[in-house]
């Protein structure tokens, strides 16, 4: 289903809706151009899961890990593979301890192609329509 958002707040709200269907253990891939709202969406996930820290882009750190205050999902792991490209491999990023855990959600911006089929449970596509409008496709009923 594709939704149009017109403010960063609306994009975060969409993330809040998706968060209520997450069980824990999912890997989310966020694809779309620079500035299309991927990090904004992760900020919404953080709000929904009760992350108290400010969720910022991991474009230089590659990976940021947040504690949540959610009863069953205890960590939000946020990766940005833009700089590593195809070298971005879940096995090689000291991610092992976060994989396959039912109390962790992993979100990857700019996932390299080789990760998409094998590891990802939810794909979200962002399109920049104009300065304010984003089309966001994700598995969510209207
Ligand atoms: N409807 C909208 N949804 C989300 N962001 C919006 C929207 N309208 C305007 N914006 C602005 O677009 C920018 C989105 O930036 P954001 O960092 O979320 O993008 P990104 O997809 O993570 O980019 P990058 O690929 O560089 O990491 C922000 O400056 C935000 O204020
Ligand atoms: Mg980003």
TrEMBL record:
This is tRNA threonylcarbamoyladenosine biosynthesis protein TsaE. One of its GO terms (molecular function) is ATP binding. It is found in: Cytoplasm. It comes from the Bacteria. Signal peptide: none annotated. Belongs to the TsaE family. GO terms for biological process: tRNA threonylcarbamoyladenosine modification. Gene3D superfamilies: P-loop containing nucleotide triphosphate hydrolases. Keywords: ATP-binding, Cytoplasm, Magnesium, Metal-binding, Nucleotide-binding, tRNA processing. It holds the Pfam family TsaE. GO terms for cellular component: cytoplasm.
